[in-house]
Amino acid sequence: MQLTVLGCSGSAPGPRLPTSGYLVSAGGVRIVLELGGGVFGALTRHCDPFDLDAVLLSHLHLDHCADFSALTVHRRGHPEPPFDVREHRLPVFAPSHAPSRLAAAHAADRAELARLDLRTTFDFVPLKPGRYEVGDVAVEVAAAKHICEAYAFRLTHEGSSLVFTGDTVPCRELVDLARGADLLLADAAWRAQAGRANYLHMSGREAGEVAREAGVGRLVLTHVLPWSDSAGVLADAAEAFPGPVALAAPDEVYEV
């Protein structure tokens, strides 16, 4: 299994850095996790968007799904698609309100929104905790703790597994999902600070503590805010987690 970072900036893009987006390839299966702002362009450097087998959206803040609109334009407007996109709808695993939320983000006004039905192009699968399959890749879903409906994912193929936290604070569900994973791709927005609201994201230290408790093989930190001290976030995580730890970087590829 291979993980390619398409974008990893937290909440807002950084200089030459899209927000959240990751490509997972395993065997002949290609899955994109998140489609934040700027991610679609990065995706096209690594994969023909028509070759995708599924989209996974942990939640529907725009830094995780804004470029779903670009994917929609590509699939609905391309003059020479390799197949009939209405007959081969792309599976999209997302919170239950995704069809209306993503349509509203795509349409320019109410008149266009009234005509737009994304379900003719995409096969929306409402997420809930449990197990799904995309080809030979098993996808286990757990509830995350964010300020909206949000999920974390564990992808497993031929005995290898990676866990993506989405946006969350530490919680038992996340630790249980990540138990023994080869790689944990973890939300680590900032350095721990006294008095910081703790209902949005993990700090680097908290991500390290989750990784240690779950006994993962290695930790990759993502979603660091553009104005955060990334070196400090990394140092805090490394202090809490005894295994290999790194900051996600655009176009970085990890073998899992």
TrEMBL record:
List the CDD domains: RNaseZ_short-form-like_MBL-fold
User: What is the recorded name of this protein?
Assistant: Ribonuclease BN (tRNA processing enzyme)
> Superkingdom of the source?
Bacteria
Recorded hits in InterPro entries, A to Z, give: Metallo-B-lactamas (IPR001279), RibonucZ/Hydroxyglut_hydro (IPR036866)
Domain Metallo-beta-lactamase span(s) in chain numbering: 18-223
Species of provenance: Saccharothrix longispora
